[in-house]
Write a structure and sequence with these properties.
With 238 residues, the chain is an alpha+beta fold.
């Protein structure tokens, strides 16, 4: 969840009216949905787009006024990164259903955007994983990284999980699987480097691998591999 600093001195006026012409009072071809169909989605303002998502207002508030109020008082960046519908419900007096609609809309866009950026890389085996992680051969400190894949073996996210000595007590499953859950990954590949150049797995390496496999089975997220990378080579522990 993105952090959001709450200003306890800020009072949200849920009944505040903006100088907005209600949907019912607009010309037929100027209503958000009709406008989209006639002139294209680019012709709509952010508030009009949000009004389409919300679909309707409440007995106390017209839908376009609601959309403007949310964007104006919450901020576009904050609402884009909001992942908890309860926050919108409490702070803006929105019905929970509408809060869920907003969060789901932006989450869907976020996932598609990230998949478009990273989803062109396919990793099906250890060699392909190593090719993607070759920069680790030059690192002077141990790095523990995770590659997060969808069900089609497309890379949807990568993350440096830890820097320093790899130890079972340091690499906790929650730190490894948190990004997998956040990004909707079906499988993960983990890797760490040995700056010394040795490719021999340590007891700690094997413990970490076993621990992650067990956690993955419980979560339904497969641990496809754990690579150890040296100066120019790698070995697979799975």
């Amino acid at each position: 969840m993105a952090y959001k600093i709450k200003d306890h001195n800020l009072i949200i006026n849920r009944n505040k009216k903006y100088n907005i012409v209600a949907v019912r009072d607009r010309a037929e071809d100027d209503k958000p949905r009709e406008k989209m169909l006639k002139s294209g989605v680019e012709s709509l303002s952010s508030a009009e787009l949000l009004a389409i998502i919300l679909n309707s207002g409440t007995k106390k508030e017209e839908v376009l006024n609601m959309a403007h109020r949310i964007l104006k008082e919450y901020g576009k960046n904050a609402i884009i990164n909001e992942k908890n519908p309860n926050n919108l419900e409490k702070e803006f007096g929105l019905p929970l259903v509408k809060s869920c609609q907003i969060v789901a809309c932006f989450e869907l866009g976020r996932r598609f955007f990230k998949e478009e950026k990273t989803g062109t890389i396919t990793i099906r085996n250890a060699k392909q994983a190593f090719e993607h992680l070759k920069d680790m051969t030059k690192l002077n400190k141990e790095n523990f990284r995770g590659l997060y894949l969808n069900s089609r073996y497309k890379l949807i996210h990568s993350e440096t999980i830890s820097v320093g000595t790899i130890d079972a007590s340091i690499i906790h499953p929650r730190e490894v699987f948190r990004p997998a859950i956040e990004h909707g990954a079906s499988a993960i590949i983990v890797a760490h480097n040995h700056p010394s150049g040795t490719l021999k797995a340590t007891t700690e390496d094997l413990e970490v691998t076993k621990k992650l496999q067990e956690a993955g089975e419980l979560l339904g997220i497969e641990v496809l591999d754990h690579l150890i990378i040296s100066k120019s080579k790698f070995i697979s522990l799975v």
